[in-house]
Amino acid sequence: MAESELLLEVRNLKTHFFAEEGIVRAVDGVDFTVARGKTLGVLGESGCGKSVTGFSILRLVQPPGRIVAGEILYHGLHGADNRALDLARCSPTSSQMQSIRGGEIAMIFQEARTSLDPVYTVGSQLIEAIKYHQSLRQEQAKAWGVEMLRRVGLPDPEATFNKYPHQLSGGMCQRVMIAIALSCQPKLLIADEPTTALDVTTEAQVLRLIKDLQEELGMSMIFITHNLGVVAEMADEIVVMYLGKVVEQTDVKALFEDARHPYTQALLRSVPQIGKKSGERLQTVPGSVPHPQNIPAGCPFHPRCPSRMPGLCDRKEPALLPLSGNRLVRCFLYDEDALKGANVHVANT
Amino acid sequence: MSMSPTPESILEIRNLKKHFPITRGLLRKQVGVVKAVDGVFLSVPAGKTVGLVGESGCGKTTTGHCIMGGTPVTSGEIIFHHPQLGAMDLAKANSAQMSKARCAMQMVFQDPNSSLNPRMTIFDIVAEPLVVNQVARGSALRQRVEELLGLVGLRPEFMQRFPHAFSGGQRQRIVVARALALNPRLIIADEPVSALDVSVQAQILNLLQDLQQTLGLAYLFISHDLSVVEHISDSVAVMYVGKLVEFAPTQTIFHFPKHPYTQALLMSVPRPSPTAQPRAVLGGEVPSSVTPPPGCYFHPRCPFAVQQCAEIEPELIEVAPGHFVRCHLAHELKLEGVGSLDLSVSK
Amino acid sequence: MNETLTLDAAAPIEAEGKITVLSVRQLMWMRFKRNRLAVIGAVMLTMFYLMALFAGFLAPYDPRTTHAEHPAAPPQLPRIVDQEGNFHWPPFVYATASKVDQKTFRRSYQPIGDTRYPLRFFAAAEPYRLFGLIPTDIHLFHVDEPAKVFLMGTDRNGRDMFSRVVYGAQVSLTVGLLGVTVSLIIGTLLGIVSGFLGGLFDNVTQRFIDILIVFPLIPLWLALATTIPPTWNSVQRFFAISLVLSLVTWGALARQVRGSVLALRETDYVQAARYANAGVWHIITRHLLPNTMSHVLVIATLAIPAMILGETALSFLGLGIQPPMTSWGLLLNEAQQTRVLLQQPWLLLPAVFVIVAIIAFNFIGDGIRDAADPFSK
Lengths: 349, 347, 377
Fold this sequence. Notes:
The structure holds 3 protein chains of 3 kinds. Chain A has 12 helices and 12 strands. Chain A has helices at 50-57, 95-103, 112-115, 122-133, 138-151, 157-161, 170-182, 200-217, 228-234, 252-257, 262-270, 336-342; strands at residues 6-19, 22-35, 39-43, 65-74, 85-86, 105-108, 188-192, 220-225, 237-242, 245-251, 321-323, 327-329. In chain A, strands 6-7-8-3-9-10-12-11 form an 8-stranded mixed beta sheet, sandwiched between helices. Chain B is built from 10 helices and 12 strands. In chain B, the strands form 2 sheets. An 8-stranded mixed beta sheet of chain B has the order 6-7-8-3-9-10-12-11, sandwiched between helices. A 4-stranded antiparallel beta sheet of chain B has the order 2-1-4-5. The radius of gyration of chain B is 21 Å and the shape is globular. Residues 1-5 and 343-347 of chain B have low confidence and may be disordered. Chain C has a 3-stranded antiparallel beta sheet with strand order 1-2-3, with no helix packed on it. In chain C, strands 4-5 form a two-stranded antiparallel ribbon. By secondary structure, chain C is of the alpha+beta class. Chain C contains 13 helices and 5 strands. Chain C has 2 domains: 40-54 and 164-372, MetI-like (MetI-like fold), CATH 1.10.3720; 76-149, no CATH class. Chain C has helices at 2-15, 24-34, 36-53, 55-58, 161-197, 199-214, 217-226, 234-265, 268-275, 280-316, 328-333, 338-343, 349-372; strands at residues 79-81, 87-100, 107-118, 120-130, 134-142. Classes of the chains: A alpha/beta, B alpha/beta, C alpha+beta.
């Protein structure tokens, strides 16, 4: 990928939480890149660190959590040819970080209603966000706010502008959130499960809206979700996370047609697909996601993996291997050196 | 409408309504009414699964609680064919009849975190229905609890542990074990896999199917996830703002829907395939069940709506044997099912 | 299928370590222990209650004994270094005598002679009944006559303040417990019933509590305290006072319990119990009570200080505990005059005990509140 197309590079990011009970390695070595104008889907189940990754980029991780290693290189500030800014080294409270938050990188969350302040009108929250990043007069900011509400497809934007969050439905609240997030035309939008709390018909509306706005504004997006269908619809490139690590990274088509990591394969097989009623049992992933404080040794997926190799997977941790077609997989099955060295046979795959 | 009572059906619901009054002020003056459930017809055959789908607030969960007797019914009939006592109308049942009915039907809840008392051991939780109904005690009780835990795939050694020691999927197994304690014929499963991780959902779905086969259970499977409902159900009921809008066998409803709302729902399901056609987007918002629009509740969002739809409320009609639709245009419309979508994962 | 299921059942539990198999109570205890202030509070309170329990043993004198030669004596701490600078063990005191200044009429105490009177530990002195039952005369420490040991001085009648504070703890620390127990029983019962049943009963109870709560506290206490027949002896009066205190505070407790029952009533596990045909009694005892108990415990712990203060206030105003019984509030009642502040400030020392006890209760209450929900982060 050419340098100039890159917007964000995350290299070996580690965010750990130092709880009294022990260290939780919520994000433990995540690498990915986000290209300009493209969408990176981050797919994973609960506890895989996908949300913490999003918070880490915006430096919103609260103590006892902190970034312990890695770089978050943001290429959007000084034009494409300039040096990138490492967000991991910025102070979370610095003015630079505060202008990046919202101005350059914005975030939307799952629970739109709880992200909005119930005692202020939609309009005043929108104006606050606009005026924080742009020196506009009150009337200009208001006009821009109404315009944003119109662009996110809210009926009667002037009336909605003066409403309180509780007067709006869940889908409308999410639209307001999107309007606030996009009001300063960020170059990157981090969407953390933005439609999980919504019904399917509303979800379809909101996803369509996000996609249209992305095209219109030419922004990049990190789309965090656990839903395979949603990620297939939204993403260009996908990273699959499991227990704080990226286990597979590839483009969306390759992932759904030819997933390589046993976890991704199992995940794809275990979800019933609409229109494909077969009457057969679903294939399952045995066990459940371990508690993040008790991550198994070796490959974190090995206790649940159908193709685990005793003596290898439970001892050593696989590295993220580049495969053909610009994809990365963290699995010993594709590591010929490790297979030869360990001299093990692949258990019944 | 007459839904012909089939001898083998275990549950039949006819025109069920549940209205909640909205009260204001000290004197509890009634200022409005929430029509949470406002005309539901259903028939669950013994040993089969009926999926009940709809968006949040459409009344599907309230329907489940009405069946369980958790809330008094406003009107309608809930005919439950008790294996020993024969047919009984739960809508009019007194508490003694209701408690007998509950021995033969049980509920599985959505969130296994909140449906298990954190202060009770697994043994106490699973034994509770047996103790309360004085079915077993002492060693017989212990044996039955062990048997139930085995049935849902949990080791009996864990029964002195507390729920917080278990993962989400395991907790849902405990909930299922408790529901099975009294040997019910019907299980009302209210979004039983929605709160679970994707990789664990399949385990619970398989468990439910296995239990259906070995124990001959009937399920009323309430869910908003159409892919899951298609997978597990023999027939499907679709609800919109408290009303049943379509009821048909699964294949029929997914491939040949007759109600525009059903079609819209099917079209808006996200499909795990990047080559699938973009989803069709249904405009507008779900109306409030306090102030629903006149005529057909769906007409403001319906692409096929005609004058009649805004004025006259459609009745449920049987367009084909076992296929019920609440739409004026049910006979005229040619709607597309999921078969029309390009779902092939191949090039 | 079987294989996957057993794997599923076993793997996470074994992997999750030993913490997860603890009961809720053990988890709460673990969290409580982590709160250092709460542990300090617990240690202090334990010491206070031990002090109240072994009052007769700790106090060198009977709290009612008047030492006529030593009225309003200042605190006299035992010394280990004599007037010549020599070190002595065990600690000793000098005998003292008072002298009244003829011009100012102020009394001052001077040592008489340099005879040292060592403290005698576990010495036999005035007889008392340990725990009110076992007759004995062993005290922790004592000195031979004519010397006296007044750790906290004496009041104007010459009664040893330290002994009075130690005995006063018996009343002051138990009146709160007793009062809270009574209001706990009334409050929990009414709170659970009105939360669970709702409807008219709930409405009537809540309005009654409203009325109870809007009364100003002290006048209400005073009014209730004056209704206690003056003919009652001090023990009866003690129980009456704790009843008065609890009658006023149960309302707030009932309201809090009702609040948490209203939330619990809607939980899925209570619904599941209902659908399993569980009766009201079963639901209350198995589901509602255990899950409100930790919450109730917090409220109760935080209500005890208010009760102690209430007793102190009532006794301070002369309507609470009556002599010959003594309490911290009653001791402060005797320190009402300004002269005390100027000339006998040691008479205010009971206030320090009140403050420390209340702070300790509040620390513990905070600790229990943090521990009450062991699953929160």
